[in-house]
Amino acid sequence: MATKQLVQIKVNGRNREAMVEPRLLLVHFIRNIPGLTGTHIGCDTSHCGACTVVLDGKTVKSCTMFAVQADGCELMTVEGLATNGALHPLQEGFKQEHGLQCGFCTPGMLMSSYVLLQKNPSPSEEEIRWGISGNLCRCTGYQNIVKSVQYAAAKMGQGEKHDLPDIA
Amino acid sequence: MTCRTSPEVGGMGHSIKRKEDLRFIQGKGNYVDDVQLPDMVYGHMVRSPYAHARLKGVNTEKAKQLPGVLAVITGEDLAKSNLAWMPTLFFDKQMVLATGKVLFQSQEVAFVVAEDPYTAADAAELVEVDYEELPVLIDPHKALDADAPILREDREQKSNHIFHWEIGDRAATDKVFADAPVKSSVHAIFQRCHPSPLETCGCVADFNRATERLTIYLTSQAPHAHRTLFAIVGGIPENNIRVISPDIGGGFGNKVPLYPGYVCAVVASLTLGRPVKWIETRSENLQSTGFARDYHMTADLAATSEGRILAMRVKTLADHGAFNAAAQPTKFPAGLFSICTGAYDYPTAFCEVDGVYTNKAPGGIAYRCSFRVTEAAYLIERVVDVLAQDLKMDPAELRRKNFISPQKFPYSSPLGWSYDSGNYDAAMKLALDTIGYDALRKEQQEKRARGELMGIGISSFVEVVGAGPSHTYDIAGIKMFDSAEIRVHPTGKAMCRMGTKSQGQGHETTYAQIVAEELGIPAADVTVEEGDTDTAPYGLGTYASRSTPVSGAATAMAARKIRDKAKKIAAHLLECSEEDLDWEPGKFSVKGAPSKSKTIQEIAFAAYTNMPPGLEHGLEAVDYYDPPNLTFPFGTYICVVDIDKGTGEVKVRRFVAVDDCGNIINPMIVEGQIHGGLTEGFAIAFMQEISYDESGNVQGGSFMDYLIPTSVETPVWETGKTCTPSPHHPFGAKGVGESPNVGSPAAFVNAVVDALSHLGVKHIDMPMAPWKVWNILKEKGMVN
Predict the structure, then answer these.
(1) Do B672 and A38 touch (CB under 8 A)?
(2) Environment class of residue B170 by beta-carbon count within 10 Å: exposed (0-12), middle (13-18) or buried (19+)?
(3) A108: closest chain B residue by CA
(4) B126 touches chain A (CB under 8 A)
(5) B104 FRET partner, CA 20 to 30 A, in A161, B369, B596, B736?
(6) Are strands B587-590 and B581-584 parallel, antiparallel or unpaired?
(7) What is d(CA A42, CA B197) in angstroms, rounded to the nearest whole number?
């Protein structure tokens, strides 16, 4: 066991720090230090994308990175998407367009879609499909996820206020 | 179907948005790996690198000396408390931790428990296991050879043969074949696949020494049945076991069996008195937990020269791996495979299946499938296409000529099923019209003339889902009924608990819609809870498309019991007799005086505040529903493919899926299920297989090799529906979650074969990877 190192990461706007083993995966830091369990682990080969988070504005698969590599970085997880209780248009879109079933891939899908829309506010269907191609879903067949992202792109393009959607 | 309730009430037929989504989209789901308990420790499994080897010794000393390690459990340790083996769900037993020898690669050998998961993994590396390699048996066809190694030395029967099962009239079938003018045949392998839900299997076992209660947070599709099995296997009083199946990240059949890791975590928690978490990795999931299919099938059809099917004959070899861990009703060693006669009307059939052991992971489970219905649907839809090819008939025309006509329902199939209802030609016609079949055939002819490869594949499947009835169906002896309990609170809101367990199907929404339909209480006011065996009524769980057919029916029946009592209360409040009351969803009113009425909410309040004399207080009911028959969903799927002659790559240009699952609770959710199931069928058809090399090394053991389609490969799905209600279900529903996975593989394969049929190709085994298609093209001289 190697000497523990201090890691400081700003997670969803809050400073989090811990002494960790250098081999600690970033995803385990996220899930265990601040206890943000929305970021999931679905494989051990970096294929599934359930652990996708946003690190300094870019998506990373947090199972493929050590926490020490993120030292000093700003990190955003699914728990950071909603602001002051108002859902992000992407979250609203996934609910409105039935973009999730079991929900396990959803946090990673949301984070990939978030960065996609930051880079490309009005993506084509093909661009959306490529944008989420690092995230596997076993339930939806992706069709409604594409619609969910389109919903958010349309809503964000209109610059609407993000009201809480109706809970059916 | 027209809706009887307003969108605000949200009964049957409304595409209301899902109640469960709000937590999932905010990262607030509660999956098993999210469970954190004080003092929790972590388990890690030591697994065999060999597929067949004598276990000469397991040395745990170095592992135990690593700081932070609390225990290392071996098979010998478990044997002392008679836990080295456990029963499977199908009259076999399976090693929890190996004793004597190992029988498949990645088999469980030792279980390490440590203060943190990293230390547990380190310690697992320090466990020294001495193996002596034994000859490996991989090919199921060689399992019964005289020189085949006998794998299961624990059995009295010194053979790799597990069972022979047959149904139908062999002699009558052989006679029809002897006289038939046309005979068509296909040998089709439905390859070994894995359900691979995005969340792997795992548990947290928490034995509390003070209360002597064992709580198990479990990735379980059947929490109640699992509680009973833990009680039987572990000898723990069942009242002291609480299984909690929290949010489940997909199941697809993978989470029906009990796995060795669960038992080890329970043993470790009982030993240490601390909560033990064990979460398998993806590789462990693919390499050791319930695989599906691995059916090696031959089907023959006898027909007239005009294309009238006369009889079917099926012979199948089933590879179960090292232990027969099939999850299926005990009277059915080959599950419900005898649905293989399909949507066609002919009187004679015979089907036989032999099961064998090999040095592969144990199974096979029902992957998004009602117990081998997928294999059956694939087989009949494949061989019907071969018959069409042999007869030079259009495959749509051949099917339509042989469909069971709507007037013949309930239909007695040659292998003993009583199909509840169907209108197969209506679904076929809608699919043909939607896709523009005639124009596509014309296009295909033109393309063939230019040397281009295009194919159209049809699959007109019939499913059999929703087991019971309990007189015939059980899991490990427990009868296949299911349950619902509804409690209406004084303020008119309701709580509903079920014996099933959603893994993404949207039960929190759809069951609430059933209550809304039956009682008029808005779905938004109904909370549905499943998965906690301390609170929910006993049930068999969610698999085999049985939630809506069985627990959904129980929900309606429980709601109707409540409505009966509500009527008595309404009569009391309105000072009339029950016979004078009319019901519409949400209220009773006096016949001829509709302004005199009481809403269900007013009645609920009275049930706790102003009960008529002679009636018990409260407004609640429980129902254990035993279905009188199974349900038989069906549909027609049509797939159009283009094949790249340079690469062998198949492009799915269009896919139309017309499903008939009877009356629909939530069209949005049904469509979502169909999208997902088609995508899984697409993956099976084109990219997935768990194969083994000659030494028994698994070749599809991670997402590197076991491919899951991404959004880029996945086609766009076009869906449509017809509606033929089930006559015996309380609200005419049939179940749908598995139809697309059952019906679609044949459509994909039929399309690819159709594209190559003019070259003499009659069959291609899945997965139809580009290299495989390219090799066929090369063999046929289509590649330069």
Answers:
(1) no
(2) middle
(3) B27
(4) no
(5) B369
(6) antiparallel
(7) 9
| Total count of residues recorded for chain A | 168
Q: Which of B14, B15, B21, B707 to mutate to test the interface with A (most CBs of A within 10 A)?
A: B21
Q: Which domains does chain A have, with CATH numbers?
A: 5-80 (3.10.20.30), 89-157 (1.10.150.120)
Asked if B283 reaches chain A (Cβ–Cβ under 8 Å), the answer is yes
**Which residue in B152, B227, B274, B368 is the catalytic one?**
B368
Structure tokens at B380: 């009949």
Phi-psi category of B6—alpha, beta or left, where left has phi over 0 and alpha has psi -120 to 50? beta
The reported pLDDT for the residue numbered B1 is 65
Read off the pLDDT of residues A31-73 as tens digits, 9 standing for 90 and up. 999 999 999 999 999 999 999 999 999 999 999 999 999 999 9
Helix and strand counts by DSSP (H, E) for chain A: 5, 5
**Chain A: closest CA distance from residue B680 (Å):** 7
CA distance B641 to B653: 5
Taking the whole predicted model, whether its pTM rises above 0.95 is answered as yes
What does the mean pLDDT of chain B come to?
A: 97
Residues 6 or more apart whose CB falls under 8 angstroms from that of B754 comprise B385, B395, B455, B456, B457
Can you spell out the DSSP letters for B723-739? Answer: ----SSSTT-B---TTH
Q: Judge: B282–A48 Cβ closer than 8 Å, yes or no.
A: yes
Taking only the tens place, the pLDDT of each residue in A111-155 is: 999 999 999 999 999 999 999 999 999 999 999 999 999 999 999
pLDDT at A163: 45
Q: Smallest Cβ distance to A77: which of B25, B27, B671?
A: B27
What are the φ and ψ backbone dihedral angles of A37, each rounded to 5 degrees? Answer: -90, 10
Q: Which residues of B touch A141 (CB under 8 A)?
A: 675-679, 714, 717
Residue B287 is encoded by which pair of tokens?
Answer: 């390499």
Mean pLDDT of B45-56: 98
> Tell me, what's the pLDDT at A166?
44
Residue A130 touches chain B, beta carbons under 8 Å:
yes
Q: Is the pLDDT of residue B296 over 90?
A: yes
Contact A95 B712 (CB under 8 A): no
- Please report the beta strands in B181-279, taking only residues with DSSP state E, as ranges in sequence order: 182-193, 202-208, 213-218, 241-244, 276-279
Given the cut 0.85, state whether the ipTM is greater than it. yes
Asked if residue A159 has pLDDT above 60, the reply is no
Domains within chain B, CATH numbers bracketed:
21-28+482-625 (3.30.365.10), 32-134+202-248+255-279 (3.90.1170.50), 291-467+629-779 (3.30.365.10)
